[in-house]
Every structure is written in structure tokens, then in C-alpha cells.
Known about the structure:
The protein is an alpha+beta fold.
Amino acid sequence: MIKFVFSLTVLxxxxxxxxxxxxxPYVSPVHVSEKLFAGRWYEVKRAEKFGDMGExxxxxxxxxxxxxxxxxxxxxxxxxNGVEYKTTEAVARQPRELQRTALGAFVVQxxxxxxxxxxxxxxxxxxALLYFCYEVGVMKTDLAWxxxxxxxxxxxxxxxxxxxxxxxxxILPLFDVNHIDCAVPNDKTQDSNGxxxxxxxxxxxxxxxxxxFRECLNQFSNGDSTYMLxxxxxxxx
Length: 237
């Protein structure tokens, strides 16, 4: 499961895969639109880490929102431990220097760690590739995920995405995430293909996205094509 809520207990146990001495690297991000990125993604491969061993049926929901500090990415991550589903939530914001762009680079809010950098290294309408790195003292931990819109996608795509990560300077072993015999969360329903139906919360997110798109257009009502493109990329259906 994609977890970004850190505690000192967890951070002191850095004997997991991907932990080494040094600083977090910069990984070139791709452009991210809300149309492509928002909504539900299933983890299909990931770099194992402390707290994730044996966890299955993992998925994450993303949506964009705005507060007094500006736009932010809200992340709701869920995984099944064989008994129950556990969910964590986190907020990520673009660095100030990128806030006028659509680049998928974010700083995740957390406690006890620094340089919590999340990069969207690849994105299309079926797959996403994410890289995350955080530092504690002189140590850093690298994490990565291949996400899919489907629980059981075509695995022939995985090697290409793993090479994409390597070409961006990240060498991490990625392991398959088990999505077999997944229990249905209490507030969800599934069809025969394992797809989870939209809940009222999902519909609320869509309505909020539409509202933000209109608000964005009104903010840049002078007709500047650059800002209109920014609104379209991030909030248009």
C-alpha cells in the first residue's frame, strides 16, 4: 500500500529494500492532468518495504482540491492484510517553483522525515509509474509503484515501465501485488470483473473537479491561452 504517514517507530526500521545512505535524487516527472490521474488506481507492482510485506489488494484514490494555501493532491491509500482493509490519507503539494506548471512532482506532508518527494514518472489512461523518496538523517528510502486502472492488467507492459524507471536513474526491484481473493470493502460493491462501483464519495469528487475547473477558468478570464490550457489539463473532463 502507498503509505506516506510516517512515525519515528517506522522510520527507525530502515532495513527494508531500497534503503541506503545518501540523498534523494531528482527524477524527471511527466505532465499530469486531473482527467488522467484522478480516481482509483490499483497497485500491480511495488518495491516492498517495512509494513507492506504480505499486504495485498492495494489501491489508491487521488483527487485534486484547493485550500487557503492553493491546489493540492489528496491521496487515500488502502490495503488488505488478510483480515481487514487499512486506509491511510496524505496531502501532497507541488514545490512552489512548479505551481504554475502541470508537472507531476510533489512534496508529501509527513512527520519525522524530510525531502518527501513524489514523482509521477509515467502516466497514460491505463498505467502510472510513481517514485517516492524520503530522508531520515543520512539515510534515504526509495519506493516505487506501477499502478493500473484495472486490477488484472496485461503484465506484458510491466517490463517497459520498469525500464522507464531505470532510464530515469532508479534501480529498484519491483514485486507483483496479489489481487486474488480480495474481500470487498464494506462501503463498496463489485461487478463480475472485479471493478469497484462508484460511491457517492466518488461522485462528490467529480462534482468538486467540475467546480474547480469553472473556478480556474474564472480566475484566468482574461483569455490567456497558457492559463486556459493549465485549467483544461488539470480539471476538464
